[in-house]
Structures are given as structure tokens and as C-alpha cells.
Amino acid sequence: DSGVTQTPKHLITATGQRVTLRCSPRSGDLSVYWYQQSLDQGLQFLIQYYNGEERAKGNILERFSAQQFPDLHSELNLSSLELGDSALYFCASSVEQGQETQYFGPGTRLLVL
Amino acid sequence: GQNIDQPTEMTATEGAIVQINCTYQTSGFNGLFWYQQHAGEAPTFLSYNVLDGLEEKGRFSSFLSRSKGYSYLLLKELQMKDSASYLCAVRGVNSGGYQKVTFGTGTKLQVIP
Known about the structure:
heterodimer; A: mainly beta; seven-stranded mixed sheet; four-stranded antiparallel sheet; 0% helix; globular; B: mainly beta; six-stranded mixed sheet; five-stranded antiparallel sheet; 11 strands
């Protein structure tokens, strides 16, 4: 158990819909990262927040957005969902913003039908 | 930008030794990570190298040569449970001047009896 929690574990929805994925980092960690992993694909970095501020942006679509709240939990919002958005979405956290060792949550498996 | 190369798949025999290579190109190199990921699960941290040389941790060792942009993960006394994907990740500097970690697509290791 890494100490990072993600909800929900599984999510099934339809094309065109909007969903919100939630992540709570390890106690004391200020940075949160979001990754997407499609079937048999590598981890694609989406976005990083540090202490509430956006710190780095990866291959995140405009239909996707995220934020980190004052209590340091983070939410990833996915809208106008497409079939290709079906993937595992991981959240990770680290102590500082330097992206040292990241601890990953169990992931949310999203299936868009 | 950052570019990471590692073999897609490898097969090795239980009890044997296997070496998984990773070559990279990055700006502002500041460390290399190895993560293990079992299918459908979250990646878990294995090792971190920032200086040249070999770091040993039980059955797993990781080597780094910064001048060659090269690292390897060595797994000894292979066990069936070592069947997993092994992700090489490089920490560098993004265009905004912030630290950024980029993951390779991973090497899927199959351990056979």
C-alpha cells in the first residue's frame, strides 16, 4: 500500500459524458501527478500540481482538466468522453516538486462505451 | 525533450539472471528511476541512480552511465513473481525550467520455468 488513494476503482460510462477522478496523496506529499495508461501502452504523463499550483503539463487533452485543492487532494475531470479515453488513470505523489520518487495509487479503470 | 528506449519484451528462465537496458536522451539530466509494474497494477519504485555506477539492492541492481546515456536493471535469481513490466524513467528539465520525469514504454519480462 503506497498511501495514495484513488476513487473510484472502476468507472463505466458512455461517450460524450463527463467524469471526475479523485486522488488523495500520501500524508505530507505536496506534489500530485496524473498519468494515463492505455492497454499495452506506456505511462503518459498528463499533469502535475505542487501545493495547489500547476507545475508541469504533459500530453493532456483540452477536454481534460485537473486541479489540486487546499487539502492537497486532486481531481481529474474528463469531459466529452470518447472510446479512446478508456484507460487506467494513475495518480502519484511525491514530497517536493522535483519529481523525485513517486508513489502511485492503485489507479482508476475507466471504460467508455 | 526527452527520449527513452528500452526493449519491448524479454523472456528469461526461473533462477537465471536478466539484464534490461535503457538508453535515454534528455536535457538537464538529474536522475534515472526503475519501476516495476505488474499487469493492471500500479508501478512500484525499485531504484534511483543519479551518479555513475552500480547500486545493489538485494536481487535487483541498477547501473548508470551518464556519459553514455545508458542504464540497466539487473535481476538475479529470477522468480516467477518477477514477471512484470519494468519501466525506465528519466528526470530532466522541462521547457519551463522545472524538473520533469518521463517514463519509457516499459519492458515486459516473462519468467518461464
